[in-house]
What does this fold into?
Amino acid sequence: MTLDFLGTLERTHRCGELRAANAGEPVVVMGWVNRRRDHGDLIFLDVRDRTGIVQVVLDKQLSPEAHARAEAARPEFVVAATGTVRRRAAGLENPKMETGDIEVAATELLLLNDAKTPPFSPAEDAIANEEVRLKYRFLDLRRTEMQRNFRLRHEVARAIRNSLSDAGFLEIETPFMTRSTPEGARDYLVPSRVHPGEFYALPQSPQIFKQILMISGFDRYFQIARCFRDEDLRADRQPEFTQIDLEMTFPQQDLIFKVVENFMTAAFKAAGIELEPPFVHMTYDEAIEKYGIDKPDMRLPAMVEFTQILTPELREALKIEPTLPVLGFIIPNARPESSTQSKTLMNEIRASLGETGLDWLDVSRLGKSETFKSLGEQITQELREGHAKFLGYDSGLPSPDGGSHLAVVITPKLGTPAKWNHDPQWIYKKVGALRLELAKKFADKHGLFTQTGTAADFKFCWITDFPMYEWDEEAKTWQAAHHPFTSPHEEDIRAGRLTSDKGAVRALAYDIVLNGTELGSGSIRIHRKDVQAEIFRSLGMDEEEQKARFGFFLDALDYGTPPHGGIALGLDRIVMILAGASSLREVIAFPKTAKAIDLMVDAPTPATEHQLRELSLKVAPRT
It folds into this structure.
């Protein structure tokens, strides 16, 4: 088969742009053969490019030469077709295609390149084997779904960039090669050839640089920044990722929240979804007590606490620990269909709770006892009212979902010890984890998390007042919960809690959460050298270590640093949620596997001896 040259032929239209209004126009379209259908004298080629698919018709009677070329064409061949747009015959329209009302009657067809039979067809909607997809990523990215994801990513990023630019932010790039600083994960290190035995680190975030930009007087900075973390991977984590990074001087938390809500509203509008800010606010403690987690999924009703209605006498009779909370929750549309299913589910829940000392209180059995009947009714009523509030209806009316919900009440059994002395909220967290586990169990069956393409699918919230420190049980010490540049509340500093009661210190830190996924974290920063040095000391760094690791930053704080704060949001995560994807790999063009391998280019690879010698390195055998 002889392939053709494009010569001076120019494309007039993209495939997905043609409509009935173009009927009668001469066109030149170019792209890949998505499908080929041979009907003898008529051959139909579905030609695909980034914008969509158009049907090209090759009629042997009208153009024998073009028809002969079409006989040789196969899926993924690259072609150029010259012809005229015409409406399809009545009854032959394809409503599933945006171009389904028309077709191109071709008079000329060029075969610009052939293609081997691919390991999978880009015309397929889904390919089960992800390793094959990643190995042949250049084919996978041709698929309509992937093309749509990356158009969405582009539009979202453009909307965010425009929103921040309109709000007076300057886009400034920060270095990829910097020094290693503690930010919660291992750094990727880059050996220096010029300085043997010394290393740069790839940035986990532009944290220190963006603070220095505030010290430098730029007032408002942003960057859609590439970041790197050497950590174990999962569906929502990659070793290199993109975040929307911003910082501003003289802010209050609410001003930062407004800026973020504005650009998120613009980003979602680019995806066809109208958000209605402001978003819900709650403190870290409120989130834990209502949802059992600091990134609450508010598509489910909050937990209900029954601690106050259980008198000491009732607790003793039911063998419930007298000092610990009793919590309940509802999973909508998840009621077991029989007593057998209910018993099986109860056993599953008890197995999930493990050796915590927590147990499922069967509220239905309380109603069969004169002693506990009123308690059972009160618990049921409070759960019903909580669910009614969540759904936005009068609890005295019949439930819109028919009342087909699963009600779960968890109690600490008599003698249950406090599981962690440094975490008095452990019960809330355990019950909150069970709430999510059950929701996921019933999600597919009952459509709990099915997206409808409206703002109601997206439940945003701001979480504030995080703990400044968290207890490291293994090291038996307190660590920074956010990062060491986060400012504590002033009253906690004045009260001396940095040294006397670290567990009570609150940070001026905040997260933005969407549907149970943390989209981003930020904080008001420390702008005084004495406070920054005190925080470093509270984390066990003496002056020598502070100077060695952060001397340049501490020096900068000496030169009139304004109050400042900021936030960073994961662009990949935002697009993943908007695309309805299950993994970041669906919205990152060239991602790594769970083992941090790029299957397409086969990276990482060993360095040559010559490269190692230039870098003054030697690879030691694994022990």
